[in-house]
Amino acid sequence: MIKISHHHQTPSLPKLNPMLISTLQLSSFLCLLLSTTITAAAVDDNSPWLPYTPTDYILLDCGSSSNTTDASLRSWDGDVRSQFSPSNIENTSSNATSSKSVIQVPYKTSRIFHSQFTYSFPVSAGPKFIRLYFYPVNYSELDITNSFFSLTSNDYTLLNNFSAFLTVSAMKPAVASLIKEFIVNVRDNQILNITFCPSPNSYAFVNGIEVVSMPENLYIRGNDHPIPLVSENQRFYIDNNSALETLYRLNVGGNEVSITNDTGMFRLWSPDDDYTYEDYGFTPHRDVAIRYRQETPPYTAPKIIYTTTRTMGNDSLRYNLTWRFPVDTGFYYLLRLHFCEIQLEVTLENQRVFIIYINNQTAERRADVIYWSGGTGIPVFKDYVIMVTDPDGRRSKQDLWLAMYPDLHFRPEYADAILNGLEIFKLSETAGVKKHNNKTSSFPAIIGSVAGGGSILVLIFGFWIFRRRRRVKDLGSKKPKSWIPLSSGLSLSSDLCRRFSLEEMKSATCNFDDSFVIGAGGFGNVYKGHIDNGATTVAIKRLNPSSNQGVHEFQTEIEMLSKLRHLHVVSLIGYCHDNCEMIIVYDYMVHEILRDHLYKSNKPCLPWKQRLQICIGAVKGLHYLHTSANRTIIHHDVKSTNILLDEKWVAKISDFGLSKLGP
Ligand SMILES: *[C@@H]1O[C@H](CO)[C@@H](O)[C@H](O)[C@H]1NC(C)=O
Ligand SMILES: *[C@@H]1O[C@H](CO)[C@@H](O)[C@H](O)[C@H]1NC(C)=O
Ligand SMILES: *[C@@H]1O[C@H](CO)[C@@H](O)[C@H](O)[C@H]1NC(C)=O
Ligand SMILES: *[C@@H]1O[C@H](CO)[C@@H](O)[C@H](O)[C@H]1NC(C)=O
Ligand SMILES: *[C@@H]1O[C@H](CO)[C@@H](O)[C@H](O)[C@H]1NC(C)=O
Ligand SMILES: *[C@@H]1O[C@H](CO)[C@@H](O)[C@H](O)[C@H]1NC(C)=O
Ligand SMILES: *[C@@H]1O[C@H](CO)[C@@H](O)[C@H](O)[C@H]1NC(C)=O
Ligand SMILES: *[C@@H]1O[C@H](CO)[C@@H](O)[C@H](O)[C@H]1NC(C)=O
Ligand SMILES: *[C@@H]1O[C@H](CO)[C@@H](O)[C@H](O)[C@H]1NC(C)=O
Ligand SMILES: *[C@@H]1O[C@H](CO)[C@@H](O)[C@H](O)[C@H]1NC(C)=O
Ligand SMILES: *[C@@H]1O[C@H](CO)[C@@H](O)[C@H](O)[C@H]1NC(C)=O
Questions:
Q1: CATH, domain range 18-45+217-437
Q2: Which CATH number fits domain 498-661: 3.90.470.20, 1.10.510.10, 3.40.50.880, 1.10.3720.10?
Q3: Which residue's C-alpha comes closest to atom 1 of ligand 7?
Q4: Which one of 344, 463, 613, 644 counts the least CB within 10 Å of its CB?
């Protein structure tokens, strides 16, 4: 891992009026009490290991009249007298047995269909895995190269004019058999039907069928979980009408994880070596205790997936960490990336920050696993959907690219990226998948009046004192980490503060359309916009030339912010200074300004815990400004309209137009 060097300096603490200290001791004590309980509730260190137990679990050995046992010691029912087969099975289909003795259950026997044939599984409602086992060889004088068929399940066409033989022949490395895995939802009181339909002058066959239920919301997560649609400014929803086909499920940087070592759903996790590009990467492995959380429950993926990773090693600035996956053109694909920090060096936010590219488009900037998860050994996953098209319309197969690169814009401590696991699904064409435009939310002025906020500020400064005392103790063992100038060896000026053209700003905001306005003040309007082909949402502050906030404030704000990087200070992305326009581009904060959550708004009342966490955050931000730079930065305009809140309600100090450098 490349460590980015930074200056070591002992921050000087701000001097405080002793009167202020004594009047605020009570509140800091109160905060101390409350903050302890908040931390305890946030991470459950001893989450129990709870693998999932499927409510439906069916293994049907097709063509077999007896019950059998496979290599994993799972027992299969023969389909001849099975409750899932039609009673006239022996008159509507035929069975065959492979002469090869090495072949295992369920591949040994097969059922052959010359006309439409349906198995019916009376299962509970909810999402199910359907796994179909195929061993494509000549059975009973039938030429396997003539087998083409379709497969439907309830409303879904899962396979169309499918040839198991051609599919296996095209696979590299060569294999003899294959398993097709699908996810379909069974509605209330519905029977799961699986229907084979041979193409004209052809026949269908199957060796085994597996049906396993899965937790609701594991993959089909509905309208509460919008998924970013890469390179389009849209959200994607995978609902009960969608069917998915699993294409790849990888234990990145690790070995195969067998079906019996999965979390109860018998998913197979393969190594990723066949898909890495040019053998790059480094695969650290460490047996840390994995702590599942509510958002990433224990069934998400087995622990072993998280203890192995692929990272960039020592070459990280020279290349992208890259994988390639052959897929069919013309479909939407769901990518689920599993992350977990396990390396000793990375325990804090902003130590390893990277960009995720999918098919050469930016899918995520500022990927920071510790920020997402909350700590070492806590797993987290991120979903993305992408449409794979072929502009020429000539190729039916192409490669889906996944790549990662350090995001130096945020001045992380290490230049590196990480991935622990990966699942790729093809989404059904017929699925009722909805696309919605990102709604532009409206909210009142970003810079409002200074009114109110007194009690909040009291708490803030109470915390300031509390934090300040703690810091003094910590300094002996820890070096300050927040202020991280990059070493001079790297030329990264354009990464630190991008300069945008006016055209880019216009296209980000539909030519400064009023519907994009999210705030207004004496200086002009603030717009919500999208840059990088929609991958990044930003807040765009456009100074009105007639405003009294002029060139000086514009420059001050850019100069200050471009040097600051802290969790609790709003991030500058860049600026535009074309045609007399003065525009500043920031990270967009989903919950916008604190004031709007406190007074005169119809937004839900903020709970006390959250208010306190916001106070702590704001104080940490101020503390950073006062102590971590070469020179103290005095903000000069701290108020609830200048504290923004991100999607996790993390407080961010903003508006540095009036700030000054201290001694
Ligand atoms: C196979 O197992 C099922 C239960 O899984 C049982 O109902 C059936 O009788 C068994 N069939 C044979 C031939 O043993
Ligand atoms: C299958 O066909 C045979 C002869 O055509 C018939 O005697 C038998 O009843 C049929 N079995 C079923 C289950 O339909
Ligand atoms: C088909 O199954 C029957 C038992 O149901 C068995 O006697 C017969 O040998 C099987 N045929 C082949 C070709 O395996
Ligand atoms: C399968 O059967 C076809 C036609 O009967 C024959 O040409 C072919 O060689 C057979 N393939 C194998 C692998 O036995
Ligand atoms: C499943 O098949 C049964 C029998 O073939 C049929 O009665 C039923 O309507 C089918 N159900 C669905 C959901 O297709
Ligand atoms: C199925 O695919 C084969 C081989 O590509 C092709 O020859 C055949 O016409 C196709 N059949 C249908 C019904 O599309
Ligand atoms: C899917 O349908 C089931 C009822 O069959 C419902 O309980 C569940 O919430 C639905 N899930 C989604 C993601 O829409
Ligand atoms: C399951 O995992 C354990 C421990 O990681 C390993 O010893 C065992 O071989 C694995 N089982 C299979 C079938 O791969
Ligand atoms: C990376 O570099 C450090 C020091 O230069 C060295 O100790 C470490 O072994 C290297 N790691 C790899 C994976 O090459
Ligand atoms: C992505 O970029 C690589 C070169 O870095 C190129 O070979 C590949 O075709 C591109 N993929 C897409 C989908 O544009
Ligand atoms: C990494 O991939 C992205 C997207 O394809 C590309 O723009 C960038 O140039 C690549 N970086 C390196 C170092 O190859």
A1: 2.60.120.430
A2: 1.10.510.10
A3: 240
A4: 344
